[in-house]
Amino acid sequence: MIDQTQLADNEFTQELDRLKTTLKYLKRAPNFYEEKHLQQIRKLKELYLQLKAELLKNKNKNTKTLVKKLDKFWQELSSESKTPKEKINIIERFEIDGVDIDIIEAIKKQQANGEFPFDTLHKELGEKFTTEMEGLRIVYGKHGDCTAFLLRKILEKALFLALVKTGYKEEELRDNIGKYVGLEKLLDIAPSWKVEGVSLLPQKTIEKVKGVKFLGDVAAHNYLINVSMEDIIPQIPYFQATLKQLSKYLKS
Questions:
Q1: What's 201's DSSP letter?
Q2: Which end of the chain has fewer surrounding CB within 10 Å, N or C?
Q3: Phi and psi of 163, rounded to 5°?
Q4: Both 218 and 243 in a single domain?
Q5: Is residue 224 in a domain?
Q6: Measuring CA to CA, which residue among 52, 248, 53 is closest to residue 162?
Q7: How many CB atoms lie within 10 A of CB 245?
């Protein structure tokens, strides 16, 4: 997409993050947050219209579909009949779908230029993920099996820590022989575990990120098949979006 579209997309996404925070506290302190909520909705409407206008300048065959999704999202988000909890879920579904249909091409371009696409994510996750991120930096773009394995490990670690940080009992994350449960079980738990009334991860997010788990499992356990970077790149947007959601629970 053109630069102006990317700028509008980034600002729109940042404002959605701020709105999510307001919605979480709106019920607790309505007198304080109601005006802020209305101001953010007005700001988002301006950004939505700007983003839509920039998208319509593109001749990409997928633009019409993308604009329809954006329109539907805005209609749901701006509805006065939706509760704050419902609006948070609407935003989180939108975040995992994303609005930049060219993100995979951008990732391919980063790889071709030798760039590492996870620097921002590393900062958001924090120092506990430095070892994994340093290893990922070495193998990314060069070795698909190692990349897939590390992405899976980072996802599993972040999900475990997010559950514990938000109050899930650590001993309940062990099996009957005392070992910690694996990624599949953690993904099963996440949608039903509520943080301030909102799922740790929505079910739609879980379904999207299961591709990362699958590729990591293949890399670790199927010695007859090699995972390539071409397999991995389409999964990276979902990986990044999921880890971004989890990172907000990892900050102490």
A1: S
A2: C
A3: -60, -50
A4: yes
A5: yes
A6: 248
A7: 21
